[in-house]
Amino acid sequence: MTLTVVKPGLQTTLQGAPFSGHRHLGMPAAGAADCLSLLLANHLVGNAPDTIAIEITLDDAKFTFTDAAVIALTGSAKFLRLNGQDRSLHKVLSVQSGDEIHVGPAKHGCRSYLAIAGEIVAQSLLGGQSTYLSARLGGYHGRALKAGDILGWQPSKLLSKNTSCQRTPNNLQLAMTDNYILRVTIGPEFSMLSPLAQTRVFEEKFMVGSRANRMGIGLQGAGLSTQSGSQINSSPVFTGTVQCPPDGQAFLLGPDAQTTGGYPRIAQVIRADRHLIGQIRPGSQIQFVRTTNERAVEIYRQKLSVLKPWLGPINLW
Questions:
Q1: Which domains are assigned to the chain?
Q2: pLDDT, tens digit, for every residue of 159-169?
Q3: Neighbour-count burial of 277, counting CB atoms closer than 10 A to its CB (0-12 exposed, 13-18 middle, 19+ buried)
């Protein structure tokens, strides 16, 4: 079973679960930038939570299906159209051979996820299939999709007969916005910031500049000066780590970021909020809110308790 990419959009890739257990080799997590939207899309079509789906960034995209399929779209798309007719996001949709799907551009937010009932054929390595663009690994030949690409998939054997009636509950649909509140814990080098900079991190809003991709997001705002230099020994960093480069403009790391870095780590986005990073686009505003490690664990557990009745046992990354 196949579909053809008619219009790939700005950056469309195959993404699912992150890579795990290979950071000592320099392999980042990668995977879906907004894991919650991925989980919701896969649940609608009856897939396992972290099954590979199509991640669409900012621009619109079009696909034609050679075979009948059951699909669902979640995330930031302004619209979903089947053969020119509007259809709903967050709801299961059946398509037939020859049908065209048009995923609209993101009006707010950044990424959408198109899940297909079944298993999309993707390159496997290191126990994962997600695309890591910098190394051209995983996904569809390790690259973003292009017009004319043909994706294959194996149909699902798990799809419920009642799936066509499913729709994501309204309270679980992520409200797309261009203003984000990210809860963070302080980083190992937070004390390197000047007293004024320590206050600014949490009192001022940061604007997202033009440098915003899966590797990281450049933040513009009041400069964050350090008291004891702007370099540290190369140390572990993760998705959601906030660094302070020499120019004082904070940098928020994304899923494809390197595994180590030499700039002060001033904050870390908590696990419960990390999926929001995948929806941040140029021009967005970010407000950091400080919390404790203990509170971060509590928030994560509370979030899973809200999601579990619909999604079942899942993890966010």
A1: 2-172 (no CATH), 179-311 (2.40.100.10)
A2: 544 444 589 99
A3: buried
Q: What is the DSSP pairing of strand 260-261 with strand 251-253?
A: unpaired
Query: Tokens 């290979």 — which residue?
Result: 22
Question: Which residues of the chain fall short of a pLDDT of 70?
Answer: 157-165
Residue 232 corresponds to which tokens in the numbers above? 């540290």
Distances, alpha carbon 169 to alpha carbons 172, 253, 292, in Å = 6, 30, 30
Q: How many helices (H) and strands (E) does the chain have?
A: 3, 21
Q: In this predicted structure, what is the pLDDT of residue 246?
A: 92
Strands (E), 31-188: 53-57, 61-65, 69-75, 80-82, 85-87, 93-95, 100-103, 111-116, 118-120, 150-155, 179-186
- Residue 262: DSSP 8-state: S
- Give the pLDDT confidence of 3-48 residue by residue, as tens digits: 999 999 999 999 999 999 988 888 999 999 999 999 999 999 999 9
Beta bridge partners of 100: 64
pLDDT, position 165:
53
Query: What's the pLDDT score for residue 228?
Result: 73
Model confidence pLDDT, tens digit, residues 56-83 = 999 999 999 999 999 999 999 999 999 9
Pairing of strands 179-186, 69-75: unpaired
Q: Are 213 and 237 in contact (CB under 8 A)?
A: no
What angle do helix axes 35-45 and 293-311 make, rounded to 10 degrees? 20
Contacts for 102 with CB less than 8 Å, ≥ 6 apart? 60, 61, 62, 79, 80, 81, 82, 84
CA distance 117 to 119: 7
Place of tokens 């999709």: 145
pLDDT for 296: 98
Residue 11 β-bridge partners: 57
